[in-house]
Amino acid sequence: MTIxxxxxxxxxDAWWMPFTANRAFKKNxxxxxxxxxxxxxxxxxxxxLDGTAGLWCCNAGHNRETIVSAIQHQAGELxxxxxxxxxxxxxxxxxxxxxxxxxxxxxxxxxxxxGSEAVDTALKVxxxxxxxxxxxxxxxxxGRVRGYHGVGFGGISVGGMVANRKVFGSLLAGVDxxxxxxxxxxxxxxxxxxxxxxxxxxxxxxxxxxxxASTIAAVIVEPMAGSTGVLPTPKGYLQKLxxxxxxxxxxxxxxxxxTGFGRMGYAFAAERYGVQPDMICFAKGIxxxxxxxxxxxxxxxxxxxxxxxxxxxxxxxxxxxxxAHPLACAAGLATLDLYADENLFxxxxxxxxxxGDAMLSLKGLPNVLDIRTVGLAAAFDLASIPDAVGKRxxxxxxxxxxxxxxxxxxxxxxxxxTPPLIVSEDQIGEIADKVGKAIRxxx
Length: 443
Ligand SMILES: Cc1ncc(COP(=O)(O)O)c(C=O)c1O
Known about the structure:
Layout: H1 3-7, H2 22-27, E1 34-36, E2 39-41, E3 47-50, H3 53-56, H4 65-77, H5 89-101, E4 106-112, H6 115-132, E5 140-144, H7 153-158, H8 162-165, E6 175-178, H9 184-187, H10 203-211, E7 216-221, E8 224-225, E9 231-232, H11 237-248, E10 251-255, H12 269-273, E11 279-282, E12 294-299, H13 300-306, H14 326-341, H15 344-360, E13 368-374, E14 377-382, H16 391-404, E15 406-407, E16 409-411, E17 414-417, H17 425-440
Parallel strand pairs: 3-15, 5-6, 5-7, 7-10, 10-11
Antiparallel strand pairs: 1-2, 2-3, 4-12, 8-9, 11-12, 13-14, 14-17, 16-17
Bound molecules: pyridoxal-5'-phosphate.
């Protein structure tokens, strides 16, 4: 059998694809079979510029040699080892390296395999922490409208995307939501954090007044809501949330699954905003998408609260078979080395202004209702075709892939671009040009 035959699937029926219009895809697929640097390649060998870092994860670009060889070497040395009551060296090394990158006393890392698991882990630990401290009534969790925190029951409960919640029953009890920070009237075509909207953090005061602080465990927010369309938090918003959480003894969780590892110009967006959360959820960029891995960073005080009782007792009844999988740990260590060697977080920070200008230059194209940029991320809200909501953006994404050789991503009627941090200045221009053409193709 030739490579080409192996690369071509012979039947598209059996795989029920995630977050995909399965029937439309299978009629007219967008197939990817190879990657290198800034490019994907179709099975026919056509190059597609990766405008989305895979799914916001391949921050170092694709098939980087040091990461590939670290994974290959690890597979030959230690394929799997249990992490319940046993340890392997690279898990400890990676946890230390991540803690060094995190702000303040976020000193302890719990490994999981995805962003969704990271969120559920953080929410569970928040409730358990208060329980240990004699505040067992603190079980409520506060998320935000238009937040995305993965697809576990905890994540969709605190999340604020209607389509992800409405057919899945009653979800977790005791959850409330802050309002979204997005307001087109006040924020349209903003580069970076909007000036308007910092006051929306005060809504937390109203939620506390309604439920009483003694019932609230934690607030979880993304420093920039990515999956719902690149919604940067307004100036001053996160600082205010921190103050209110401190006032009432509520834990503040930053979900940095997207904003971590350079997307916002820093190891973590917490650093960009100068705000110290109590926990940070991460995933995606930790291995640059090469192996499934996620985790939660905990402040020392939270971790230490569990390290009591008999020494032989398990302190936290939580974990996954593949927590700190050796292949993912090897990938993570090589990825962090590459980020440091190539100064990729700084590079992202330096490119941000040029990126924002290039994307905002598309203002005025037909059907473009708003463009938002922050870090190395941008979103284009398009006007819906009457009676066919979502069709315009879907068709633009499809045309970009097949006709223009650009990978984009969809969020409803919004087109997203979030390239690897190795994107060149020329490629920023190319992405803007191709997004423009894709939008014009659906005018
Ligand atoms: C902020 C945030 N949290 C959680 C998740 C879920 O991550 P995963 O798909 O790895 O479960 C995502 C995924 O995009 C995300 O953007």
